[in-house]
Write a structure and sequence with these properties.
six-stranded mixed sheet, 6 helices, globular, Nucleotidyltransferase, domain 5, 22% strand, two-stranded antiparallel ribbon
């Protein structure tokens, strides 16, 4: 693409349509093409250089999809599902000790956090501690974290017999880093 038609990425954060200078089309086509060929994922991976994995925080967050977003003609998994909020996607995110995203997975909104935890945790082999909320309270998840040589900082549910005597509450207070990740 020559200089007058370069992609202008203003409004990226707000989700507005991008504009191509000198042309009449939006760059939604370019965004979709980059997504299909994996370019966005390669850009993300290139930006994650030597993350600080002293601590890693994981959590899931919903993203509401447009009411007409479901039912695409393609046979591919679009990462959109039905939940109480309607059509939603769920972003399962891992951030490092500074709140910078290091790994993510996108699923339909009806997918439970703990079902995606094993693959997300497997992508964090060098973390010293993995912090998560009660949605990840499972002995299988705790065992996987400990097998990787990390400490599991996950509060137990109220119905648990074991209780939270061993929970590192000081480290758990930093879980806000995954709730409001820094863009970098």
């Amino acid at each position: 693409m020559d200089a007058p038609n370069r992609l202008r990425i203003s409004r990226f954060a707000s989700g507005k349509h991008w504009l191509l200078r000198g042309r009449d089309e939006t760059s939604t086509d370019h965004h979709n093409a980059w997504s299909a060929c994996g370019k966005w994922l390669r850009i993300f991976k290139a930006l994650v250089v030597e993350p600080d994995l002293e601590w890693a925080f994981i959590d899931g967050s919903y993203a509401k999809a447009h009411q007409h977003s479901a039912g695409a003609a393609s046979g591919d998994d679009e990462g959109i599902g039905k939940s109480r909020a309607g059509n939603t996607s769920k972003i399962h995110l891992a951030v490092n000790a500074h709140g910078l995203p290091i790994e993510f997975e996108i699923t339909g909104g009806q997918i439970n956090d703990c079902t995606q935890a094993t693959s997300l945790i497997a992508k964090l082999p060098t973390a010293q501690a993995i912090v998560a909320d009660k949605g990840y309270d499972s002995e299988a998840i705790r065992e996987q974290i400990e097998e990787q040589g990390a400490k599991a900082v996950i509060p137990r549910k109220r119905t648990s017999v074991k209780g939270n005597a061993d929970l590192d509450r000081g480290l758990y207070r930093n879980r806000h880093l995954v709730e409001t990740p820094s863009p970098g």
